[in-house]
Amino acid sequence: MSCPRCGSREVMLTPVGEYVCKKCGHRWAMPSVDYTWIELDVKKAKLFEKYIDSPIESCEELLSLLLKELDEESARYLAAKILLQRAERRRMTPAELKKLYDNAESCFK
């Protein structure tokens, strides 16, 4: 951390949440922390648990449900993750696995 005014690295934190430069006395607020990524991760984990055992096999169907709750990029990644996890959980023939992997890959297109 360095002072935005003079560049000094001699900075202290006050009890009220301000930084103070020991060299020039400049004060500035501590930046606030953004926790929205945690909320998104929790939402994705809940949706993963909700749909991991659902009978939906098509990426398009799964995406249509996930897009109601998530942005497009997150929904596509989560749909692919769900389909790939299903493939790992089941005992399938190589042909069935290929079909499931291709379906998961179509989520990224």
Question: Multimeric state of these chains?
Answer: single chain
Biggest β-sheet, characterized? Answer: 3 strands, antiparallel
Number of strands: 3
Measured as a percent range, the helix fraction is 40-55%
Low-pLDDT ranges: none
Q: Strand pairing plus helix content: what structural class?
A: mainly alpha
Strand order of the largest sheet: 1-2-3
In angstroms, what separates the terminal alpha carbons?
42 Å
Q: What share of the residues does DSSP label as strand, in percent?
A: 5-15%
The total tally of domains equals 2
- Radius of gyration over alpha carbons? 24 Å
Mean pLDDT: 89
Shape: rod-shaped
Secondary-structure element order, as H and E? EEEHHHH
Helical stretch tally: 4
Short key terms for the protein model shown above:
mainly alpha; 2 domains; three-stranded antiparallel sheet; 4 helices; TFIIB zinc-binding protein; Znf_TFIIB; coiled coil
Describe the structure.
With 109 residues, the chain is mainly α. The protein has two domains: 1-32; 36-108, no CATH class. It is built from four helices and three strands; from the N terminus they run βββαααα. It has a three-stranded antiparallel sheet, with no helix packed on it. It starts with 10 loop residues before the first strand and ends with a helix. The mean pLDDT is 89. Residues 1-39 form the TFIIB-type domain.
